Amino acid sequence: MLFCLPAHGQENKPKSALCGLTLSGKITDQHQDTPLPAATIILEELNQVVQTDMAGNYHFHDLCPGIYHVKTTYVGFDFIRQEIRLTASVIRNFKLHPAATELGAVRISGHRVPPPPTQATGKLAGQALEQTRGESLGRALEQISGVTTLNTGPSISKPVIHGLHSNRVLLLNNGVRQEGQQWGTEHAPEIDANVASTLTVVKGAAGVRYGSDAIGGVVLVEPAPLRDSVGTDAAINLVGMSNNRMGNMNVIVNHNFVRWPALRLRLQGSLKKGGNAQTPDYYLKNTGFTEQNFSATLGFQQEKYGLEVYYSQFNTKLGILSASHIGNLTDLKRAIESPVPLDIANFSYQINRPYQQVSHDLLKLSGFFRTGDAGRFTWVSSFQDNNRAEYDKHLPRNNERAALNLPEIDLKLSTFYNELVWEHRPYKNMTGTIGVTGMVQRNQYSGRFFIPNYWNYTGGIFWIERWRKDKWQLEVGTRYDYRFLDVVFYENHVRTEPQFTYHNFSGTLGSIYELNHHVSFSLNGGTAFRSPNVNELFSNGLHHGTASIEIGDRNLKAENAYNVVATATYRSVKKLNGELSLYYNYIQNYIFLAPVFPATLTVRGAFPTFRYTQTNATFKGLDVSLSYQLTEPLSVNAKASLVRAFNLNTNDYLILTPADRFDAHLRYEPTQAKGTFFQIGGMLVRRQNRVPDSPVANPEPGEETTVTFMPVNGDYKAPPPGYFLLQASLGKTFIAGKQPIEISLSGDNLLNISYRDYLNRFRYFADEMGGNIVLRVRLPLNFNSI
Amino acid sequence: MFNNQIKMPKKKFLKPAFMLFLAAGLLSSCDKNDDEQEPENESELITTVMLMMQEVGTANTVTATFRDPDGDGGNAPVQFDEIVLKPNTVYNTTITLMDESKTPAENITEEIEEESADHQFFYTPTAGLNVSVAYQDKDANNLPIGLETTVTTGAASTGKLNVTLKHQPGIKNNNIAIGETDVELDFTTTVQ
Lengths: 786, 192
Prior knowledge:
Number of domains of chain A: 2
Radius of gyration of chain B: 29 Å
CATH class of the largest domain in chain A: Mainly Beta
Oligomer: heterodimer
Largest sheet of chain B: 7 strands, antiparallel
Strand content of chain A: over 45%
Low-confidence stretches of chain A: 1-17, 100-111
CATH topology of the largest domain in chain A: Maltoporin, Chain A
Distance between the termini of chain B: 100 Å
Strand content of chain B: 35-45%
Distance between the termini of chain A: 32 Å
CATH architecture of the largest domain in chain A: Beta Barrel
Mean pLDDT of chain B: 80
Helix content of chain A: under 10%
Number of domains of chain B: 1
Order of helices and strands of chain B: HEEEEEEHEEEEE
Largest sheet of chain A: 22 strands, antiparallel, barrel
Structural class of chain A: mainly beta
CATH superfamily of the largest domain in chain A: TonB-dependent receptor, beta-barrel domain
Number of strands of chain A: 43
Shape of chain A: globular
Radius of gyration of chain A: 27 Å
């Protein structure tokens, strides 16, 4: 059986000079990453069938350029059908999911593999993603090298890519640009990580394709394609954590109607509840949280066109560590000097003031139309409605809202976003994409002033072309963005309506060179632009969530980033896999929140004060990941991420830069027992010694009475020492009758050490979580086989 | 081979997009900023703290004021007086709190008087300042309030007089460490 069937379809076509392309690749088991010999690959258009060799490799030769559909099947695994646009000889690797245990692999026909980005990327899927179930999106992304998190206590985390975070990291939730309220470090992305079957991080400036602001990178949260064969399947995920006694349940059901096979449905829902987290010595009072999310997708897909409706809702209530809700600088000093938080408690699920209540609704309508002549059009329209209510610990005096137990701040952000993309038909060796985007956004607030009401209009147009030949791929792209910001607010009862216009061109130039099957190099240079956010321009006042005064600056200019990333990848069949990427990012007019000294005087004492400050900065660093198979079941994995951030204007380091981190694991995974593994390792985080020497001066402190604080490293507290966390996990797939049950047990911070992290806003007040044992159970259900 | 066919259907499919952008434009134009009213924020601010110190047996009065009319943050406080007292003298002292961000200014002292069982002022001189403060008023539970006090000075000295108002609903027990801080000011004080 191990031979290529003759290529009949080929003979009918006129031979052109270009028809000599090769499509080849490797078929592996998604979970085990082992090759699948004798898997069948069908090239539908040419009616060609081949089988993989003993190493899982396959080849199609003498192909003409065009769009092909490739179907890969293997007994006991779900098949994959993909569209491949052939303009040059390419390597396409497919990963198959075991049929009985995997639902996510059911692919819609026409699901395409996007061309590999020329930027460095990291991916989390399959078993690696399953091992993060129950974690927040930010925490899950930490598994990818080069990604760290900016945290506020144990439940709020934001992804940091190459030292850049918040509005510089664009989140694409199921293809929709997430428009949440990213007004501060304690505003986490409003996305349920349970929706995702793949998390992809594009590291470095990626503004041309994904829109302005993507200076740091892009996080793509992608659900599995809808089911494309008639029937029903489902999966139930259960997670339990010992530390904060958290429970998480997620259910996904996929259905494809017998009567209307073009119609596909998915329903998903998740519930989460956690209590006070625990450090080795005490509980963190009021750090409980709850989450209730659901989503529904209805797709209608034909060969040439498709439509999809997606609706999701995210709801969370997050307790804020009560010890962090300080009154003024005297309290802050007392809190910082105290070795344990001044306000501690026992375990409780109770969420008291201060807390946040956040909801995010997303309605997405999308469609595509494919014509053989023009290529493919994709359209996406989305409506997002984000509500954020913050309940302070300190109730305002005699306030009508407080009397009704309304939040002290209530923000509502509504966004209507449209995108139309045309992927033109491959022409010679060129493939390309042209798109237009437009957005209308409105913010409204009630309660205490934090950011003003505004209307925000943006428009963008981009064009990216990619040229492929033999071992080379070149990509060139450009984009124009326009933003009009219309702000309304009242200063001393006088209405003002400042208006801002920002516009900019950005570009990208990248290349990939595949030296051979094992080694490839990529180089990308890009520019990106980000106009200041409303909070950076206008926030002015006490931010109770972090007990500090935050002051914006109306004269801030837009940020411009110039970014270069070089990546070398080595993939051998089994032994050694590795990737090294180096980056350099120069950001003109980098905006950051700097603690300023002395603090601001108010009637309630002096408050820690942070100002939005602008400078020219550089971020450079490297990410390395390596895996090496020692013997058949035993392998070593290691990764490291280093970032250096420098403030060029003050000739000093930048504040809040992730410390160096190293991660290494030893993994035992016998090939004969599928789904069984044992892993032990740890993460080492060094102390961040690259911190600013001198603080930023506060131009308006008021009449300072007492110097309560001497700034340390431009901050209220020096960076905490480095730490090492021991981690271990083991997993096994049990079969009960025909029903597989995947069970895993993992432990974090197994030595139960007390530590603090430089990127946690609450490092002033409390330690990080202590030891945590996590039990994960996954039940994939296939109603056709039971 | 594909050259002449590429552009043909393009216009047809751009149409729905134009419609959408048009819709976006309409959506935004019919609902402009004119309806943005000033958000009502009835929160009460303490912008002004005034100490009136009347020298016993004379008509001499010393006043010291802290004033931050726009509240926390924003503009810096516009007034923060130094207290200058005579040595070995007794002053009958009253404290007044105002919200001057409103027109007319609101007197908050009266509310504190009404809710005296939930509030207490604390007067703490720093070490070296020869000043002592005694409460002259009591709430329904026989606990001090601090709206009226006597300030007694000793020998000439300098330092700070810390004035703190705590809101302690249901928990008031003459303890400065509990409750919410409504006022905390360090008045520079000279006895000369």
